[in-house]
């Protein structure tokens, strides 16, 4: 059968899939799908698949159409080898997708999580013809074999600097699944606010949130984690520490270093007290019940270590034999990593923990400074996540508005990584820091640039031509819009409004350019 | 009973309602609502109310909570005098709302459309307390009597310059209902594109749309009109003509004046041919089936009347005794108004039809030039809709990004209108022209500024202090965010990103302002 497939670039949706699959083989036939009878069936039904079928039915077929006779009774069948495989780092996400000439569609996957990606790919193949009112797939028979290059494909959002109501976080998770992203890195607490409920210390949010309503209830978090899981997305919470913690200070100044206790100073936890670690362990143990993922992000960036330059901490440092604050930082990082281990978690730290401390070898280091650090991190034997800010112009920091999609697209996490260390690069993240985004402009700033990162992390390393990618990305952006996502235009800086009238694939032209 | 109410400004949600009701009387008690048992009941059930109950249940109670004992079995009862009153210009939209000390809520309205506003007001009274996990209403007993000042409270969107997928139009309708807006003025066709299906002339969209997918199917329009109606919003379609029509020319150059037939020229319909009017009548008759509203907007702005300066049209003008193109324009306007009448519709025209022609007296004139025109329009006996662009800085053009919410708020449609002519001012509209907005930034640009217009059109004329309004508007903006609307911050120009970290009520401060 495979012999009759012709693999070449067709100007159809079959070759416009984003992110680009590993292998696409196309025929030349256009087949019609009957939206009124097209069925979704799992050989072994799971809760996740049934939920996905419900979602994708309306994504495949967004327009109401008149029923038409359908002798073929076509539909989609999903077969999963291990329907119970848990969503976790490194779970098999591969799938194969076949669309046959009779309209039947077959998705085979090792796990539910791979099957979800197959459904997403299929959804991008279905076109609607306004003239005939019919749904169709071009380039049939279609045979696709696909799997991600990296295990960790994430987006960081920062709900500490601006609160993002649950409805917006869920919408963002929906949009991430369209690009096959699988990690929401949820930076939950900051100097500015503390929006997440704690059962053991409810006063943290009561006093640390911006106000009485910009908070997540316990059940809200459960709800978001479930929403994410149904879309194959792990939620990794970040509780940044020992710096970026001033909002904790509003209710618990006693665990803060005395050097920075005023409201207008950036505080740091006090590592001299066992009380501090007992407190943190109690809160993290509580939260571990709603964040089931193996990984816990404990920050460690931009520590205002000057806070430890006070008589009490200096005396304690002497007792401990610490010569400087770097040694204090190292102590803090390792003691927190031990707590994380006790809670059954592995810890992710920002790259300061690698630069200025020596965390345990099972820690994961997230690179945000210069990209060249990646090589050093893996050469030291640590696993690494790539999210270099690239000077805010050539990195994966989405708050760097001067960083364009194509700048992000060509960044390669494996640059200068030796072959034997490649396995240590888990993947990467786009980082949507919250200083200048809130629900007004969050999606607008994230998309379509996150799509560039998503393809870099999913597709083969050889898929790196911005010229080839651009028309596909423009179509993907149109699909995002049709699904309700507020994606910006392709081209220009981050968050560029359309410069003039135009279609969703074009940035637009001014009236003067359109009409003389 | 009324005697015990104390009417004064409480710092509670009961006085933060947007737009401000005509009369609010408050007690001083805070009562708890049990979200698990709170019921919604209509004394006479209607489809619209049942749908609204479903929506508002999740708006009243957005967070999942643990069931608690509820001896009071409180809930909301709606009583409607005329449940069959059709949604139309001038329908009674008044309501009264009473929240009693035992938690029962009573909404009385003349029509379903008034009752919907009562539900919206009640939704703005319900607070969630994160510490206790309880919903409550403060200032009980609450007695509110409310009705709009103007009958026509609209938003214009422009789907001709950028296509807005149905899912975005529906989201916008949802958000409009939160501000008690009741008209979507849907500018559907433009020089740039023709996105709407026509059953009699499908080639109009097939050739005039930007592409194969940025189009509305017939069923899409039906779906949007129904979605709007369920929220008390009339949909008034605009088919702008005789100018702003170049996208029609792609399939039907034969109804265009020969003076402007090239692709790069802005075209104008040819009034010299009966064929033109026959064609337009056929298309409008078709669309009349899916746009049930009494009003049809036929544009008439910015006519490139130079297109009529060609030998054929000049010869025809001679035959007709027309001295200039103004007389041609007048002929076109009146002939189209006659077609509209034949289709059972009344016509709305932009103010050029008043300035340069003499439409029939039952036409409605929409003012977009200087606000001073309003007086002239009503003095000439026409009904008027206010949407002056105010030089794009002090008007109701939302694409005028320099126009701030407070500039919009203080504009009064009845300025210089004599008392006996006030009835002729139907209301006003915020105009979100589409050159620089598409789904990426549409809501971000519309909100919160449209809220300023909404309150001007709903509340008493005396409610005009920006100082009093601002904290209420900030709370309303937070409510919009919590409901999934992408509203910009209060303050600054249109579409200003938050300048730094902060709560939803505050524009934000830079890191440097927050921490020394």
UniProtKB/TrEMBL annotation, chains A, B:
Uppermost EC category: hydrolase
Enzyme Commission code(s) on record: 3.2.1.52
N-terminal signal peptide: 1-16
Catalytic activity annotation: Hydrolysis of terminal non-reducing N-acetyl-D-hexosamine residues in N-acetyl-beta-D-hexosaminides
Region (Disordered): 489-516
Residue stretches making up the Beta-hexosaminidase eukaryotic type N-terminal domain: 17-125
Bilayer-crossing regions: none
Family named by the database record: Belongs to the glycosyl hydrolase 20 family.
Protein name: Beta-hexosaminidase
Species this chain originates from: Cladocopium goreaui
Lineage: Eukaryota, Sar, Alveolata, Dinophyceae, Suessiales
């Amino acid at each position: 059968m495979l012999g009759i497939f012709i693999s070449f670039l067709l100007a159809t949706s079959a070759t416009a899939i984003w992110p680009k699959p590993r292998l696409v083989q196309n025929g030349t036939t256009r087949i019609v799908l009957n939206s009124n009878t097209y069925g979704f069936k799992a050989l072994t039904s799971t809760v996740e698949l049934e939920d996905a079928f419900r979602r994708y039915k309306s994504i495949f077929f967004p327009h109401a159409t008149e029923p038409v006779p359908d002798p073929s009774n076509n539909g989609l069948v999903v077969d999963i080898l291990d329907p119970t495989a848990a969503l976790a780092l490194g779970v098999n996400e591969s799938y194969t997708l076949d669309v046959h000439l009779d309209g039947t569609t077959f998705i085979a996957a090792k796990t539910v999580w791979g099957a979800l990606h197959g459904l997403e790919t299929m959804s991008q193949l279905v076109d609607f013809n306004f003239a005939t009112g019919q749904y169709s797939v071009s380039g049939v028979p279609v045979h696709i074999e696909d799997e991600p290059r990296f295990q960790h494909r994430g987006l960081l959002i920062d709900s500490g600097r601006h609160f993002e109501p649950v409805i917006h976080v869920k919408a963002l998770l929906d949009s991430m699944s369209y690009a096959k992203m699988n990690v929401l890195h949820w930076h939950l607490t900051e100097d500015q606010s503390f929006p997440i409920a704690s059962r053991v210390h409810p006063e943290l949010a009561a006093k640390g949130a911006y106000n009485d309503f910009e908070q997540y209830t316990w059940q809200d978090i459960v709800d978001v984690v479930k929403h994410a899981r149904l879309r194959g997305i792990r939620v990794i919470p970040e509780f940044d520490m020992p710096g970026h913690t001033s909002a904790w200070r509003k209710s618990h100044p006693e665990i803060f270093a005395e050097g920075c206790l005023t409201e207008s100073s950036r505080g740091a936890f006090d590592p001299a007290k066992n009380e501090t670690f007992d407190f943190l362990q109690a809160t993290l143990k509580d939260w571990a019940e709603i964040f089931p993922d193996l990984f816990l992000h404990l920050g460690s960036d931009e520590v205002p270590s000057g806070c430890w330059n006070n008589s009490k901490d200096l005396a304690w440092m002497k007792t401990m034999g610490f010569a400087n604050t770097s040694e204090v930082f190292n102590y803090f990082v390792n003691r927190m990593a031990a707590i994380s281990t006790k809670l059954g978690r592995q810890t992710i730290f920002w790259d300061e923990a690698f630069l200025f401390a020596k965390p345990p070898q099972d820690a994961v280091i997230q690179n945000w400074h210069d990209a060249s650090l990646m090589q050093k991190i893996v050469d030291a034997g640590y696993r690494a996540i790539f999210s270099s800010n690239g000077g805010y112009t050539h990195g994966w920091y989405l708050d760097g508005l001067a960083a364009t999609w194509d700048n992000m697209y060509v960044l390669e996490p494996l640059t200068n990584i030796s072959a034997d260390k490649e396995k240590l690069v888990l993947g990467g993240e786009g980082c949507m820091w919250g200083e200048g985004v809130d629900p007004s402009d969050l999606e607008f700033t994230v998309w379509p640039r996150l799509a560039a990162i998503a393809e870099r992390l999913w597709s083969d390393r050889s898929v790196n031509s911005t010229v080839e990618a651009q028309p596909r990305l423009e179509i993907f952006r149109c699909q995002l819009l049709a699904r309700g996502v507020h994606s910006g235009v392709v081209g220009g800086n981050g968050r560029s409004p359309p410069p003039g009238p135009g279609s969703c694939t074009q940035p637009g032209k001014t009236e003067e350019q359109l009409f003389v």
